[in-house]
Amino acid sequence: AGITRHLSSVSSDRAALEERGVVIDGTQLVLHNESRYLCRCAECFGASSNQPLHTNDYSDVKISEVKEVQDHFISLHWDDGHTGIIPTSQTGAYGNGYKPTPSSRNYDLSLRKNSVQTFWGSPNSGVTKRFQYGDVVSSSEKTKEFLAHFMEYGLGFLSNTPHQPDDLLQILKDLKVTPYWDNMFGILSKVSFQSDPTNQAFNNQRLSAHTDLPYYTQTPSVYFFHCVAKRTGRRRELLV
Fold this sequence. Notes:
Layout: E1 4-6, H1 14-20, E2 21-24, E3 28-31, H2 32-37, E4 63-69, E5 73-78, E6 83-87, H3 104-110, E7 130-132, H4 133-136, H5 140-153, E8 157-159, H6 168-174
Parallel strand pairs: 7-8
Antiparallel strand pairs: 1-3, 2-3, 4-5, 5-6
């Protein structure tokens, strides 16, 4: 990754080597100031931008301790007080710890391949599977499981979500869903029954299949419907 040097390509003089950096396992030389500039820990390197987060001068910084050698990283402590990681392979070059490759199924779902999507004409146990909101947001793996289900069926149900009128924005944040944008009704379009509506969306009659506002703006890739209060007594309102 440009940070370590194999000893076969540098001087074998031990004193000269130690002046330049630290020898790892007798086979690689880690350079003092280069390693500090290229630290890939979360404090020094942006997970989203893939760019360094600081422009500090580390030209006089030296490695004071090798803390751990991993498959794709070496953990170091420098004499400026910082502990971080440097990559030793291309796998680790983008920082913040080793990120495993997604499963082949999730990768195919992200590409919307027909072979991993389920096309359905009527509700079934897979389509109507309910996920508990607390479980889904408890870990990245649970969130991925829910989003993979959504990508497979095109529909996902979350139960026991926060249920105040403006909580949908927090739900999107918890699910790590971005970006979102406002429309002619604002960030959130609130739909509730009106006794004398000017738009059929606000009465209590059944609506046929439709796409909202396709001519006003770019049609969103995902619609979130957040049920704040549900009418009881009828059970034919499962699908929106």
